[in-house]
Here is the input.
Amino acid sequence: MSNLTHLTIKDALKGLENKDFTALELTQSHIDAMAQTKSLNAYITETPELALEQAKASDARRAKGEAGDLDGIPLAIKDLFCTENVQTTAASHILEGFKPQYESTVSQKLLDAGAVTLGKANLDEFAMGSSNTTSYYGNVINPWRRKNDDKDLTPGGSSGGSAASVAAYTAMGAIGTDTGGSIRQPASFCGISGIKPTYGRCSRWGVVAFASSLDQAGCFARTVEDNALLLRTMSGHDPKDSTSAKKDVPDFVAALNGDIKGLKVGIPKEYRVDGMPEEILKLWEKGIEWLKSAGAQIVDVSLPHTHYALPTYYIIAPAEASSNLARYDGVRYGHRAQESDLTDMYELTRAQGFGDEVKRRIMIGTYVLSAGYYDAYYIKAQKVRRLISEDFTKAYEKCDVLLTPTAPSAAFAIGENEDDPIKMYLNDVFTVPASLAGLPGMSVPAGNDKDGLPLGLQIIGRPWEEETVLKVAHVVENLAQFKLLECGDLK
Amino acid sequence: MSLDKETVKKVARLARIRLTDAEVEKLGPQLSNIINFVEQLAEVDTDNVEPLANVADINLELREDVVNDGNCVDKVLANAPEKTQGYFVVPKVVE
Here is the structure.
């Protein structure tokens, strides 16, 4: 495997500019790496020809002195972003063969900056899952393994393919989406960094909708700085998404100055949940010490409604999903059951097209929105959502940023946690609250568990303060000295 | 609360998802578990709390009332499972 795949985005841009190598060489080395790690199943659709074409065009632009911010950088795109004339499945059978006639705003911005797109990364079906085991196109395998154990582990989810591709050096960065933790939890499981910005920072236009009041695009990379580079390009107002904010996009890279002196870091006591492994608690303690040593002030804070975040999420997200997924009716795109009666056609199209988890969530959503239950469940959840959001507002009167573990465990084996949907849902216990409040959150790899698997710490910021989140994550990254997966470790 | 078979079937009908009897059997307890889990919210005092529908502190704006899209029938129909003469085709609805 070529060393070019092991560069950071920042160094690759330097190398391209210095003519150490071409975008074509950089892209080819990633295509080769993809071929060698096919068993990870990180991609649903690979687009090597398109990538090579884009790379050639990138080299031509650079030769003319017209290179963009990410020119020639090979990326993986979660298969939830619509890509013009490239199959977009949302990991569902119901969208098999669907070729969007337009490009999502976020992927278009990356293309406009010169990025090369290697393919569409695997995910949980319609982004519903925390293990990437609900994809119609098969499980994604985490490139990490436990010491002394050869079991295939999940990469986390839903953006499991995006995270696995970056961890396995088959992409320099990837874009994903995060509804309840779908960037942060897989970043933690795969030993890389990932950020979900503030709700409204990136356009949702052209992103297959799951739960519209929560869905937000974000990115993965092997360093915090690379994430800052990607996010800078992806962000910004889009007239095609009325919930995208008209806010200037700061220079996220410039924010990484390491200066957190006097910054107040809140430690929410409710995140010490029962049954959390000792090593995660210890890592959290270490994170606190690191930030203290860098000059931050540690403040104890309380987010009293944390315990209710998951039940709130599991009303709101399925409710919105049941409404959003009503569009898959076999008429305009995707799979269609051949039936002569319209209702039969609808019901069988959806029965055949959706997997078990998606059906479950549509059913829950339909139930909580149905006559007689709407107030008891949906409105109630929206009220608790306000209380959860207010918890954060109050905490941020005392601190600037929060530090928590990203997930309550390291990567688990494929098949574990599958006997009971609730068990799977608990994976997102630390990521869902920030999602409900629309806050920016980032996972940065900070240590390993007893089996050698990566563990992440999460930094949650105030709305629109991604700069602070990135800055703190960068400090953690520098002090943790986390060892990325090595090439020789790849199976 | 536990969802009986009739309720599961009714919800499936509302969601336009055809379920086999075996699926109804399996989904009943699973859905009941999830509903029981979310019912914890009943403990929370939400008197005088306004529902929060969206966290985005953004005012929705009106745009100029001009045509800025359209004339792309081929694109709209490009992924249709069945189409004819510029239209989507569905099974016969009116006898």
